[in-house]
Design a protein that fits this description.
The protein is mainly beta. It is built from one helix and 52 strands. The strands form 18 sheets. A four-stranded antiparallel sheet has the order 17-16-15-38, with no helix packed on it. The longest helix has 4 residues. It is globular. It comes from Goodea atripinnis. It is a single-pass membrane protein. Its main location: membrane. Pfam families: Ldl_recept_a (PF00057), Ldl_recept_b (PF00058).
Length: 670
């Protein structure tokens, strides 16, 4: 029954993928249904043709990244031995490096076997060139007749003979966490709460409790150990649920999850008891939750409403932080020790797909990664090394950059390691991810993807995964801790250049806006209602630090497509339509206790279907507030319709129109 959005292709298995990924030589659906019956066109002039026929941009060739999937874009490249680590040898005609000991050992290790004797190419392993080279340290046999190499921690200088010190800390994965370079060597250390093993591995101190995996399986929330030994159902499915996002706060002993079938966000204790519905309105498709464990806030990402909200653990004090320039947001991660928020957004085309960083109050957005992104799904942080990890279910990769978007590294590459990654978490020296093709939770090394292990199988598509342990949520001083930071309503963490990077901003509840002192809030009298296909939004009329003044309205059905909105100022009611179902809605906006809050819809029961009889597709509405008559134009019935709200009587007042669109009414002039 699930139908994909307009700009997406529906696979045979029900997956939705962008049209740009159909017939592009990549199996995005997982059942190859997006590559059936294709007429593949030849690549454009600015593109490189892989052996498989896949097209990639020319500047992706020889960039040490297997873009083609079969290494055909990395063959015949110059190897600059400077890009190899100490103790490695650069393969001729390729960007690959192999250990010096594997050169001329009788087994081909480089692409094309260029590290061994090849009589046709007149390459013979030997030491003939050694006397001419006069190496500073040692000469090793090579197909070119010998090559210099250096002791550990040194590399061959530009003159091909002398040795120079190499900063070992530049070697990816040499230390799990902290690294200090020393002449010819290095020293690894670990952050608080971890201890060092084998000279470079950091393990969490288990005196504070054992680390646990929390992930979802269909509607169930599961808890398991990180070694694949035992798993239990923490919370069974709520009705016919499908749990996706998960988050936890170890100090409050609380677990949170979102359900895209019941359209709610829940919380429960670690023992699976005290199940509460914390968000029930305007959460139609929450794909991700993230935890601010310093200021005790839950961040909520909704992919249908294209926004990131924040609320208290009981669902109160909800505020919208981001609702602009998002198309299909998915991944969300927080580092509340420095006030940063990271999220992924999939645009209608690959040029608009991005990984962004913002301050945790939603300000100061920066696009960290824009190139070579397909379908970014999960995103997670290593707050010790200050790196962002993300998975991509189009390119089947897991990659990482620093918090500033630099030093991009690939951790997992190719359909064998990660066929369709979805959720992800990083802990110690492992990356844990859920996969929709392997249907389970997989653990791999987080530097090179080695030793992939399927820890747990799931009966249905797994959602997100998190690791619960106190070291994952280290404490720093909360700037909102004393007197709510001096804020009238809501205090939100943010980034700051001083105070070890942590600051705060004040926000107001729905229906209010910030005064010029940036602390106190005043009640908003006038605001703008905007109907879009996603929802009806209430936004400030003036430049404001508040993103939205109201909760979005989007109907009660599974799909929604709005186009018109009207307002009754006496009753504090909003009228709007749903084109996909042919309905007119009315929402009473006075909150609880009879006091009229402007548009604080705490309960969906305030939303009611006014009429669904012969409505059709409505394009525009106008309201006569004196006699409580709602007018609308409908292109289905080619008419202007008058509808009395009090007794629900209806009449076509103009018929036989061709394409009725806009409408306005002036009640006092009739």
């Amino acid at each position: 029954t699930h139908h994909c959005p307009i700009h997406q292709f529906e696979c045979a298995n029900g997956f939705c993928i962008p049209y740009a990924f159909v017939c592009d030589h990549w199996d995005d659906c997982g059942d190859n249904s997006d590559e059936q019956g294709c007429e593949y066109s030849s690549c454009r002039g600015s593109e490189f043709t892989c052996s498989s026929g896949r097209c990639i941009p020319q500047n992706w060739v020889c960039d040490r990244f297997n873009d083609c999937g079969d290494f055909s874009d990395e063959r015949g490249c110059d190897s600059d031995s400077r890009d190899c680590y100490p103790g490695e040898w650069g393969c001729p005609g390729s960007t690959a490096c192999i250990p010096v000991g594997k050169v001329c050992d009788g087994k081909p290790d480089c692409p094309g076997g260029t590290d061994e004797t090849n009589t046709t190419a007149e390459q013979t392993c030997g030491l003939d060139r050694c006397s001419a080279l006069s190496c500073e340290y040692f000469c090793h046999p090579s197909p070119q007749g010998g090559a210099c190499y250096c002791p550990e921690g040194f590399i061959v200088a530009n003159d091909s003979r002398s040795c120079e010190d190499y900063n070992d800390c530049d070697i990816w994965g040499i230390c799990d966490q902290l690294c200090e370079d020393r002449p010819g060597t290095h020293h690894c250390s670990c952050a608080d709460g971890y201890f060092l093993e084998q000279g470079h591995v950091c393990k969490a101190n288990v005196t504070a409790g054992l680390p646990q995996l929390i992930f979802t399986n269909g509607g169930d929330v599961m808890m398991a150990d990180i070694h694949g030994r035992f798993v239990r159902t923490l919370v069974p499915a709520q009705g016919r649920g499908y749990a996706v996002g998960v988050a936890y706060n170890i100090r409050s002993n609380l677990i949170f999850w979102s359900d895209t079938n019941t359209k709610k966000v829940y919380s429960a204790s670690y023992n699976g008891e005290n199940i509460k519905e914390i968000l029930t309105a305007a959460v139609p498709n929450v794909q991700n939750l993230a935890m601010d464990w310093i200021n005790f806030k839950l961040y909520v990402l909704d992919a249908t409403l294209e926004r990131i909200d924040m609320c208290d653990f009981d669902g109160g004090n909800r505020v919208t932080l981001l609702a602009e320039n998002l198309e299909t947001p998915h991944g969300l991660a927080l580092d509340p020790t420095v006030g940063y928020m990271f999220f992924t957004d999939m645009g209608a085309n690959q040029e608009k797909t991005k990984l962004e960083r913002a301050f945790m109050d939603g300000s100061n957005r920066v696009e960290l990664v824009k190139s070579r992104l397909g379908t970014p799904t999960a995103i997670t942080l290593d707050i010790i090394t200050k790196r962002v990890y993300w998975s991509d279910s189009h390119f089947d990769t897991v990659e990482t950059v620093t918090y500033n978007g630099l030093d991009r590294k690939i951790v997992l590459n190719g359909a064998t390691q990660s066929p369709h990654p979805f959720g992800m978490a990083v802990f110690e020296n492992h990356v844990f991810f859920t996969d929709w093709v392997k249907m389970g939770v997989i653990r791999s090394n987080r530097f090179n993807g080695s030793n992939p292990t399927l820890l747990y199988r799931t009966a249905s598509r797994p959602g997100h995964v998190v690791i619960s342990h106190s070291v994952v949520q280290p404490l720093v001083k909360n700037p909102c801790g004393r007197h709510n930071g001096g804020c009238h309503h809501i205090c939100v963490l943010s980034h700051s250049s001083d105070n070890d990077g942590l600051g705060f901003r004040c926000k107001c509840r729905y229906g209010y806006d910030l005064q010029s002192d940036h602390r106190s809030c005043f009640k908003v009298k006038d605001y703008l209602l905007v109907a879009s296909s996603l929802a009806v939004r209430g936004i400030p009329l003036n430049l404001s630090l508040q993103e939205d003044i109201t909760l979005p309205l989007n109907g009660l059905g599974s799909s929604f497509s709005g186009s018109a909105v009207e307002f009754d100022g006496n009753e504090e009611a909003v009228f709007y339509n749903d084109r996909s179902k042919g309905l007119i809605y009315k929402s009473n906006l006075n909150g609880t206790g009879g006091t009229p809050y402007p548009l604080v819809l705490q309960t969906p029961s305030a939303q009611q279907i006014l009429t669904g009889k012969r409505v059709g597709i409505v394009d525009a509405m106008a309201y006569d507030w004196t006699s409580k008559v709602l007018f609308w134009t409908t292109s289905t019935h080619r008419a202007v319709v008058a509808f009395r709200v009090t007794d629900k009587s209806k009449k076509d007042i103009v018929t036989g129109l061709r394409y009725p669109k806009g409408i306005a009414v002036h009640p006092s002039a009739g």
